[in-house]
């Protein structure tokens, strides 16, 4: 008989006798869909794996895009027709700047604005209140001129000191209508305002209110100050050129920004958070692609004789390659389509019931809606199909390279799998691991840990590529037991480790990512808890307002608090914001009592502090984020804008701050008051006299301070619990994405062992002929699954520690500028490992029932 391997391929035959190639036309479709119909569960798992990855990625993209678009639209709406905005610190700047700016050449109109985030009575959140001059705002920001409700007031309400105009979103949020009363906090006093109408346009989802500027300055206790000036330029005047020319005329801390600068600053607020969520979503898609690879690789092993027969009747290697690749695409296209639909539904549900911040707190107060966008949909559809195709590419190449004569023989299934542990695979694993380690030393790109992400991907790929060699080494050197079944198990794993390595790779990929995320989150949570314990030394804390910046404590109220019976000592803190770069979000400025000789008593320092010398500028201590973003270092002399002037300071130390991503600067309270003449404070730490309890102190403080009912009290344990609750909420999406990846990985384990069982039908038949019972084969398969999973979780744990180190020491500092120590959650990792091993054993047993049910004679008839 003619050797099948010598049959000429169709390109050497005449066109009239050329057979139709699989992957082209109805013949290829019949082969593809015939395979899918024969194994519907495997097909469904592959489709769902791709769908889950696409759904998570598309949902995160839609939510982030909707929230950011709504926030940007609101910023643009509030800026109106302004070409340039002069923006100052939260404490404001002298209103005397306004007439000087209004008379500059090139200015068509200028509108002064007071901006306060006011606490609403009965709510923890704040409402943004703007004070505008309606006669000037009509030219620059007409959206901020309220429409009077004739049933609730008259034309004079635009200038009335006790009226406010609310956006539609604010009315809905507060449950108010024109004519109702709105009560906000100013200092420790309650301010009642009548809702006189609605703002014509201020974004569909953002809450804002507008008052007359004089009323806002008076009633909100901002006399003589402004927060911004909106400028409309004359035709032909370039906004960037005007901003550069106006810069020398501005007081320290006031910057001229354009709409483009505002858009950049708005995007920067959540850019790192959004980037990390997108990468996590792609991890789910990557896991789905790996599942497709596992199923296709094992399917190719099972169907080697079928492909060999196709080659023998004249199908080219390219035709076999196209057949397997199109099978992957047949999984990817419906999976991507289902994923897009599920992702849109998930995004709509999250935006409707949870808001657009995804737990990160960057878009509080924004209620956007999910809107279909063709470009991201097309992108994620293409990613889903590409993931499935790439997962099928390596098995397709293997199927195309196999020799028909050898593949038609029984027992050849291990040959291609054995090539996985060749020197080339080991070299590839070493190269990927080495490149990943090199990338961990690379700096961020445009403020994002691009090389950190690449390092994680390369370490993961290198670890997976190393698994065949690891499996061969481990299973070949394990001591052989005395009992027959364990001997059969070890013989199978030691002499045919290639097929085991395919299933092992899926376990390693999913468990390494799972353990890495668990280690990172645990390390972060412990670091935050330790940080809070150092920052909260007092037994009781009070705050003028739980939200916004309208609440504060005046000097008289501070004195009353310090003199209250039962209070042994009170330390007051002033929290405000200053701008060091107009294109970046502002930096928090914290004025609190600090001993320059022992700053570690109040601050969690990241390194040894600088001992101040006589004659040096006053010391300040900057957070890690401020140091990274602005290039500050210990011992450096810097200037900070305070009260419209620039003052020199010495960086006396760098401290860890897990609350403010864009930096915080601590200054001694006495230095702050001396330089700014600002005597207001926002918080207080209270030490109690002997015998006094926190409950007693709270009652006395509310009675002794005018407006004491507005004060918010908390003990250190309550603050830590609330902070950790916010922490867990911010990682809620991370947990969800991780869970999706793990579930996909467990599906992959089941599909892997099921496919292996089908590929080993003849082996099971031979064992049945030798007298091995079905129950014993089931036990043997469960033992194989448990051993492979055990090696997988051990390898995955080792790789996961490496990935966690990259997350903790590279990705996190480059994304958020926070450093921390690595902490292993041994209990959680052990529990997860036990669950994976048990699940692998059970899925191996359950998925192999079909193969074990095949009649023993029929299973080996091809060998007779």
Textual characterization of the structure:
This protein is an alpha+beta fold. It has four domains: 1-9 and 29-60 and 284-409, no CATH class; 84-257, no CATH class; 428-534 and 719-864, no CATH class; 540-714, no CATH class. It is 55% helix and 14% strand. Strands 1, 3, 4, 5, 6, 7, 8, 9, 11 and 12 form a ten-stranded mixed β-sheet that branches. Strands 17-18-16-19-15-14-20-13-21 form a nine-stranded mixed β-sheet. A two-stranded antiparallel sheet has the order 2-10. Helix 24 runs parallel beside helix 27. The longest helix is centred in the first third of the chain and has 44 residues, at 259-302. The two termini are 19 Å apart.
Summarize the structure in short.
The chain is an alpha+beta fold.
> Can you tell me the overall shape?
elongated
Estimated helix fraction: 40-55%
Poorly predicted tracts of residues: 1-19
Instruction: Describe the sheet with the most strands.
Output: 10 strands, mixed
The count of helical stretches stands at 29
Count of DSSP strands: 21
The end-to-end distance, rounded to whole angstroms, is 19 Å
pLDDT averaged over residues: 82
Query: Structural class from helices and strands?
Result: alpha+beta
Total separate domains = 4
What integer value in Å does the Rg equal?
34 Å
Query: Strand fraction band?
Result: 5-15%
What structural keywords apply?
single chain, 864 residues, alpha+beta, 4 domains, ten-stranded mixed beta sheet, nine-stranded mixed beta sheet, 55% helix, 14% strand, elongated, disordered N terminus
């Amino acid at each position: 008989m003619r050797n099948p391997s010598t049959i000429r391929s169709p390109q050497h035959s005449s066109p009239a006798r050329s057979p139709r190639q699989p992957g082209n036309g109805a013949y290829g479709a019949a082969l593809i869909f015939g395979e899918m119909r024969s194994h519907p569960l495997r097909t469904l798992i592959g489709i769902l794996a791709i769908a889950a990855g696409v759904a998570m990625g598309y949902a995160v993209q839609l939510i982030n895009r909707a929230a950011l678009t709504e926030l940007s639209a609101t910023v643009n709406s509030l800026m109106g027709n302004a070409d340039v905005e002069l923006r100052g610190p939260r404490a404001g700047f002298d209103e005397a700047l306004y007439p000087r700016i209004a008379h500059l050449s090139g200015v068509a109109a200028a509108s002064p604005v007071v901006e306060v985030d006011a606490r609403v009575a009965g709510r923890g959140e704040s409402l943004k209140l703007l004070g505008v001059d309606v006669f000037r705002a009509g030219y620059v920001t007409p959206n901020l001129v309220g429409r009077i409700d004739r049933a609730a007031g008259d034309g004079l309400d635009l200038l009335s000191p006790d009226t406010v105009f609310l956006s539609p979103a604010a009315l809905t949020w507060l449950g108010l209508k024109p004519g109702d009363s709105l009560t906000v906090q100013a200092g420790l006093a309650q301010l009642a305002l009548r809702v006189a109408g609605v703002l014509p346009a201020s974004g569909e989802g953002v809450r804002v209110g507008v008052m007359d500027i004089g009323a806002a300055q008076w009633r909100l206790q901002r006399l003589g100050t402004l927060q911004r000036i909106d400028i409309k330029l004359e035709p032909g005047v370039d906004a960037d050129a005007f901003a550069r020319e106006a810069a020398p005329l501005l007081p320290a801390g006031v910057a001229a920004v354009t709409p483009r600068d505002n858009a950049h600053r708005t995007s920067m607020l959540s850019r790192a958070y959004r980037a990390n969520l997108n990468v996590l979503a792609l991890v789910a898609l990557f896991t789905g692609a790996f599942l497709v690879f596992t199923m296709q690789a094992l399917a190719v092993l099972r169907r080697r004789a079928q492909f060999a027969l196709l080659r023998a009747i004249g199908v080219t290697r390219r035709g076999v390659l196209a057949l397997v690749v199109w099978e992957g695409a047949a999984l990817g296209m419906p999976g991507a389509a289902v994923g897009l639909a599920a992702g849109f539904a998930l995004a709509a549900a999250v935006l409707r019931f949870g808001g657009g911040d995804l737990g990160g707190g960057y878009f509080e107060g924004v209620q956007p809606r999910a809107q279909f966008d063709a470009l991201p949909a097309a992108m994620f559809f293409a990613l889903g199909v590409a993931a499935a195709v790439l997962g099928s590419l390596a098995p397709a190449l293997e199927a195309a390279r196999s020799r028909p004569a050898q593949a038609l023989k029984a027992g050849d299934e291990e040959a291609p799998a054995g090539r996985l542990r060749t020197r080339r695979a080991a070299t590839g694993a070493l190269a990927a691991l080495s490149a990943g380690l090199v990338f961990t030393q690379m700096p961020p790109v445009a403020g994002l840990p691009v090389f950190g992400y690449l390092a994680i991907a390369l370490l993961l790929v290198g670890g997976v590529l190393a698994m065949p060699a690891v499996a061969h080494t481990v299973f070949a050197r394990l001591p052989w037991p005395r009992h027959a079944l364990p001997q059969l198990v070890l013989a199978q794993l030691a002499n045919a480790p290639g097929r085991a390595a395919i299933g092992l790779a899926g376990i390693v990929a999913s468990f390494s990512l799972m353990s890495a995320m668990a280690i990172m989150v645990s390390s972060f949570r412990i670091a935050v808890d330790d940080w809070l314990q150092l920052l909260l030394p007092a037994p009781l804390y009070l705050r003028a307002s739980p939200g916004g910046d309208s609440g504060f404590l005046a000097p008289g109220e501070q004195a009353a608090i310090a003199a209250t019976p039962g209070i042994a000592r009170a330390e007051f803190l002033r929290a405000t914001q200053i701008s060091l770069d107009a294109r970046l979000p502002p930096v928090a400025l914290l004025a609190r009592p600090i001993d320059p000789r022992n700053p570690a008593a109040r601050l969690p320092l990241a390194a040894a502090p600088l001992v101040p010398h006589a004659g040096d500028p006053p010391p300040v201590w900057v957070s890690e984020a401020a140091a990274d973003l602005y290039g500050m270092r210990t011992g450096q002399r810097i200037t900070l804008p305070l009260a419209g002037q620039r003052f020199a300071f010495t960086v006396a130390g760098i401290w860890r701050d897990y609350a403010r991503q864009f930096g915080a600067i601590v200054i001694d309270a006495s230095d702050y008051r001396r330089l700014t003449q600002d005597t207001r404070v926002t918080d207080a730490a209270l030490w109690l006299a002997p015998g006094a309890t926190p409950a007693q102190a709270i009652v006395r403080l509310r009675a002794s301070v005018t407006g004491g009912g507005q004060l918010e009290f908390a003990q250190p344990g309550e603050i830590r619990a609330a902070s950790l609750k916010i922490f867990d909420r911010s990682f809620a999406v991370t947990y969800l994405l991780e869970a999706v990846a793990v579930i996909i990985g467990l599906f992959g384990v089941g599909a892997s062992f099921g496919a292996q069982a089908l590929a080993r039908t003849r082996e099971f038949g031979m064992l049945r002929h030798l007298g091995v019972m079905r129950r014993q084969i089931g036990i043997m398969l469960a033992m194989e699954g448990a051993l492979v999973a055990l090696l997988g979780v051990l390898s995955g744990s080792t790789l996961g520690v490496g990935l966690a180190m990259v997350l903790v020491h590279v990705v996190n500092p480059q994304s958020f500028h926070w450093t921390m120590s690595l902490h292993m959650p041994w209990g959680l990792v052990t529990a997860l490992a036990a669950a994976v091993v048990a699940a692998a054993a059970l899925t191996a047993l359950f998925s192999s029932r079909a193969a074990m049910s095949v009649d023993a004679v029929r299973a080996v008839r091809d060998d007779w």
